[in-house]
Amino acid sequence: MESNFEPKIVGFLCKWCAYTGADLAGTSRIKYPPNVTPIRVMCSGRVDPVLVMKALSSGADGVLIAGCHPGDCHYTSGNVKTIRRFKLLQRMLDQFGIERDRVRLEWVSASEGERYAQVVENMTETLRTLGPLNWNGSKEG
Amino acid sequence: MAEKIGVYVCHCGTNIAQTVDCKRVVDYASALPNVTVAREYQYMCSDPGQDLIKKDIKELGLTRVVVASCSPLMHEPTFRRAVEEAGLNQFLFQMANIREQCSWISENKERATEQAKSIVAAAVKRVEFQESLDVKKVPVNPNVLIVGGGITGIEAALQIADSGKKVYLVEKEPTIGGYMARFDKTFPTLDCAACILTPKMVSVGQHPNIELLSYSDVIGFSGYVGNFTARIRRRAKYVEEEECSGCGLCTEKCPVSVPSEFDCGLGKRKAIYRPFPQAVPNVPVIDKDHCLYFTKGVCKVCQKFCPRGAINFEQKETYTDLQVGTAILATGFGLFDASKVKQYGYGRLPNVITSLEFERFSHASGPTGGKILLKNGQMPTSIAILHCIGSRDTNFNEYCSRVCCMYSMKIAHLAHEKTGARVYEFYIDIRAFGKGYEEFYKRILEEETTFIRGKAAEVTDVPQTPAEKGKLVVVAEDTLLGIVRRVPVDMVVLSVGFEPRKDTIETARIFSISRSQDGFFLERHPKLAPVSTASDGIFIAGACQGPKDIPDSVAQGAAAAANALSLIDRKEVTLEPTVAFIDEKSCSGCKICIGLCAYNAITFDETKKVSKVNDALCKGCGVCVAACPSGAIEQRNFTDNQLLAEVESICATGK
């Protein structure tokens, strides 16, 4: 494993909760590793598994999907659909031999800046231990 | 034809430039495909910054614009407007957030710069796939829903109604007035609360533009800004509002007496009752749980005596749908439960009371007719007031409830005035921040109230000296003298703090708004949009957003009214066109999307055998897009191509 390996994580953040929570982490000047590059979506329910697999196959080491806590979804129940979809996605990851820890579904409310920072920190640490995914073979080693 | 993209990197003073090497980001962006120009500027949001963009659009013929600066929640509308002014459709613009989610989270300039490059590259790649979109304009229904009839809701209702607009004021309790109706005097002026509140309550009751729905709850809320539908449950009062003259004979004749909630259980009320004499509407309700007719099937005394035949035991709860364009939530607060702090003996030691109970004792129409009395009917000769109960306490609520210092001093004044008792204030810090507050503090000091700086450790009835016998002893460390003091008193008043109402979670869900960490409703911006929420057209005001005193609550009520009126007077609002649409040619007619839509926005066209999205109902969440097995559904401004472009770009950079 590379010694200074910094995982590349694609983050899908819902506009109402997780993205606002991530903004709050910044506004509060909470420091956490800049390993997640965020993509703003209206709802975590928009995250098509194809997008996740595309990220992993294009060189991402992990994917974070973050939305509103169940029950708090701005669209009533979009995140519930994300949960169902995520379960199937995990089975697909197993079939591809990809560690489940590489794709995470987390709930972050608009006021949980600190929680977002912890999620990213924790995920980054996990992926540093897991090492590069290198699914597209672009990385050496 | 290749797009011509302009990239503008903002320093945001030093907010971004301190941790992101903006020059390197610009150089990097210049070399990205299709980027015609990349510039940096100290404040892109300033007029000269925006002019830079507009000038380039006109002179260089830019077809796409990316601004790398703060969060889109801050300045997306600013830059969208700027590109529109230069003749470019606002959806050909993309914002790259390199402040909140980049420069502010890192101290490592190298890594933050790399991250900024990755974010900018993703935006550049994405913007290529963005399309011109038309915003939809919809008319704004001028009716306003106000939830909560405390002083905040009352102020908002009157402001709006006076402008000629229709207000639906929904109140849970049988009367409006909220907590303020239960207070005796108000600080720092010592105005009698009822004297300043009840004229406003009467105005609400009489206003031709206000429809007051008391004893009612909002149980559903749907639609979008300018066009909401609120579903209201009107609970049965068992009294016909139109028939009742408010004579009060029914209450007088009712044989059942139960503890009055309005008086914190200190006084009694009947089973058919008005919470207090000046109730608006002046119509009693029957408490079904205690009414003899409902519990035992006998009595009906109220019905026999009612001169207008207004009592109707058969009344059922009803449901109505209200069409409104905006909503103001003024649902107020709850009080901290003092019995949670065991060491103060609330609920165990008879003469330990809460500040609200003191208000009821002190109130002329309260259970003792305005007398401060101990449980044995005697007047206290010494009273201790304990500050910060449940507030500024990591065991309970970390925040300061803001009003307790001031109301505690008001209580000290009233107690001294009414009983001549020696008054002690046990405080952590005195927070007298408002207009005339510090002066009031000085006045109370001069009234010989003893201020002891120290949070009480306990209240005990176990004496250590003969002087403490039969007394309540407040034990506290006097942090100014550095000694532990034991102060024997007859009565202890616990200054309980504010908490979010117990139904805050439910209300937040009904209106799809967020709550902050402390559990109160979350405002759009703590400083610049204090009464707005993330949901357009839904405003919050008063103590439902956080602890507030009466002046601040009234100010917020008026502010929310102004926000609502400004929206109404625009007459129409624009809706984000980020709705889903279905490519009929690709749709296989599987109907998976139909069951997933939370808004019933998708229907099936039986002749064409394809699904169809109703634009007006679609909220643009994108759930159906992700679910469509044939990829026939797309979401405008969040198309697969746009998101895939971001994904691929992110994965390709920083290798």
How is the topology of this model organized?
The complex is a heterodimer of chains A (141) and B (655).
Chain A: E1 9-14, H1 18-27, E2 36-41, H2 49-57, E3 62-67, H3 78-96, E4 103-107, H4 113-130
Helix pairs in contact in A: 1-4
Chain B: E1 5-10, H1 22-30, E2 35-41, H2 47-60, E3 64-69, H3 72-85, E4 93-97, H4 109-128, E5 136-139, E6 144-147, H5 151-162, E7 167-170, E8 185-186, E9 191-192, H6 193-206, E10 210-213, E11 216-224, E12 227-234, H7 249-253, E13 257-259, E14 268-270, E15 272-273, E16 285-286, H8 292-296, H9 301-305, E17 318-324, E18 326-329, E19 334-335, E20 352-354, H10 355-362, E21 382-389, H11 404-419, E22 422-427, H12 437-446, E23 450-453, E24 456-460, E25 472-478, E26 483-489, E27 491-496, E28 498-499, H13 504-511, E29 538-540, H14 550-569, E30 572-575, E31 580-582, H15 592-596, E32 602-605, E33 610-613, H16 623-627, E34 633-635, H17 640-652
Parallel strand pairs in B: 1-2, 1-3, 3-4, 6-7, 6-18, 7-10, 18-29, 20-27, 21-22, 21-27, 22-23
Antiparallel strand pairs in B: 5-30, 8-9, 11-12, 12-17, 13-14, 15-16, 19-28, 24-25, 25-26, 31-34, 32-33
Helix pairs in contact in B: 1-4, 2-3, 4-17, 5-6, 5-14, 10-11, 11-12
